[in-house]
Amino acid sequence: MQLTLTVATIMSHHYLIGSTPIGVAFIGRADGPDNEWQDFLPAATAQVVPTANQAAIRVLTAYLTGKLTTFNCPLDFSHGTPFQQQVWQTLRTIPYGQTWSYTQLAHDLNRPTAVRAIASAVGRNPLLILIPCHRVIRQDGQLGGYRGGLPMKHALLALEKRQS
Known about the structure:
The structure is a single chain. The protein is α/β, with parallel strands linked by helices. It is about 30% helix and about 15% strand. It is built from 5 helices and 6 strands; from the N terminus they run ββββααβααβα. The protein has helices spanning about 55-65, 80-90, 100-110, 115-125, 150-164; strands spanning about 1-10, 15-20, 25, 45-50, 100, 135. Strands 3-2-1-4 form a 4-stranded mixed β-sheet. α3 crosses α4 (about 115-125).
């Protein structure tokens, strides 16, 4: 798999964006390491193209500035397992400004006993923000984990709460 990488500066943070011919395949965490994509796409070869991924940059910028509530750019999460893909697709159905618990997500997937496996698939989401895993919280209302860090998760949820 060939990955085209671009570093985008959005609201004073650097985001690594990677795409394939199918669509956006990776969004790194704000100010994350340049090689973070390798944890999610280890078989990929990458080429940095500073002018690539402009549509994804526009979408991320519009979302992070409160001007967009749905994501309309093509995504490529074909490198995930079928189970991960199913979880990631379901994450995309969580409405803007709402949160679901891992248990609620498991019930929506008709896998009520698979909460831990589902949480693991959520944690393997290669597309921060665009596949909104930040909208999943623990059953007790605590934020739980987030690859982008808990401050970023809190900020994204606060942004959505203000805009909804």
